[in-house]
Amino acid sequence: MKFFVYRYNPDVDTAPHMQEYDVEVTRGMMLRDALMEIKRQDESFAFRHSCGEGVCGSDAVNANGKNMLGCTTPVVELKEPVNVRPLPGRPVIRDLVVDMSQFYQQYRAVKPYLIHKDPLPEQEILQSPEDRDKLDGLYECIMCGCCSTSCPSFWWNPDKFHGPQALLQAWRFLADSRDQATEERLDDLEGPYKLFRCHTIMNCVESCPKSLNPTKAIGKIKELMLKHSI
Amino acid sequence: MTTKNRPVYLDLKQFRFPIAAIMSVGHRASGVLMILAIPFLAYILDLSLAGPDGFAAVKTILDSLFIKLVLFVVLWAMLHHLLAGIRFLLIDFHMGVEKEIATKSAQAVMVAAPVLAVLIGLIL
Q1: Which family does it belong to (chain A) (predicted)?
Q2: Which site among A79, A150, A201 would you substitute to test the B interface, given the most B Cβ atoms closer than 10 Å to its Cβ?
Q3: CA dist., res. A148 & res. A208, Å (int)
Q4: What is the per-residue pLDDT across A177-225, written as a single tens digit (0 to 9) for each?
């Protein structure tokens, strides 16, 4: 199977180029396996990967124009030749390795942790099964970056717009019955950029390898904002 | 580590946009097109109301195939903008926000707008 892979070595190259590799497909081969085979052929090739089963979120790449996890994408589902590029809109450190700092900064900005103001109880803070169910479809995010780096609003304003990943997490903590900072969280999301740069394009929903729905979460945040303002 | 002056892969020709994204771009483009069409349409309306001569002049203008084509595109833009707008409104009310339905509704808008434009064009 033919692969064209985005190559850029900052020490040698002035501009990135696509390099061709031929990989023998084995049964059940995932895109990550193919990239590892390419690395065996050419050890100068760099890409991130770790768990190999869609849990760590390290090996998100853009293959044939779509963002996906290398480890959960069977190569037989990809049209040949396969064009593998780094995640869109991020500065390339080397080959498929990109700088995700802005993405993490946006995540940090939504305070992705429980804020509890009452004195903490001696044991755990209890939550009803119904309240726990509200976190389904939110907590599963592995922060691979497929969504935010496929979002045009994030492409043009990665410094000001939180992006789908961070907003999904903003809602994850707003929706948590144990969190007590709803007002502050909503105040922090005010303004034309952080939340409201979302134009419901839904590329995030399309690209999420965990089938999560940031658009829905963003809609819920807006609804809660409305409820709190009246 | 500094990543200034690094290349960024953001080639819109290489990125594969889902149908919902293409529909969304169409929503914007159709909005801009309609704004640009306002001066022409206002001029035509003004001329047609200027008296029998003006009305006759407008009739000959509208008989031209090129103008008919322009008007068809504007009509298509209006219908696309209207239908896409309704879709966005429904999504704001958490209706059709799931992946499969959002894809289907985007396809429906893409197909329905030109079909309706042709139908209305034929009637007029």
Answers
A1: Belongs to the succinate dehydrogenase/fumarate reductase iron-sulfur protein family.
A2: A201
A3: 9
A4: 999 999 999 999 999 999 999 999 999 999 999 999 999 999 999 999 9
Overall number of domains in chain A: 2
Residues 12-71 of B with CB under 8 A from A: 14-18, 20-21, 24
CATH number at residue B84: 1.20.1300.10
Note if the pTM is more than 0.90. yes
CB contact under 8 A, B99 and A155: no
Number of domains in chain B: 1
Can you tell me the mean pLDDT for A131-142?
97
* Residue B81 counted as an annotated binding residue: yes
Task: Give domain status of residue B114, yes or no.
Answer: yes
Interface test with A, best of B6, B11, B28 (most A CBs within 10 A): B6
pLDDT tier, B2 (very low <50, low <70, confident <90, very high otherwise): low
User: Contacts of residue A206 in chain B, CB cutoff 8 Å?
Assistant: 18, 20-21, 99, 103
CB pair distance less than 8 Å for B3 and A86: no
Distance separating alpha carbons of residues B118 and B75, to the nearest angstrom:
9
Q: Residue B102 corresponds to which tokens in the numbers above?
A: 């959002």
Residue A105 shares a structural domain with residue A94: no
State the DSSP H helix or E strand holding residue A22, giving kind and residue range, or none if neither.
strand A17-22
Residues A87 and A106 in one domain: no
Structural domain for A40, as ranges: 2-98
Alpha carbon of A4 to those of A1, A63, A72, A78, A88: distances in Å?
10, 10, 19, 13, 16
Output the domain CATH number for residue A160. Answer: 1.10.1060.10
Q: Which residues of chain B neighbour A199 with C-beta distances below 8 Å?
A: 24
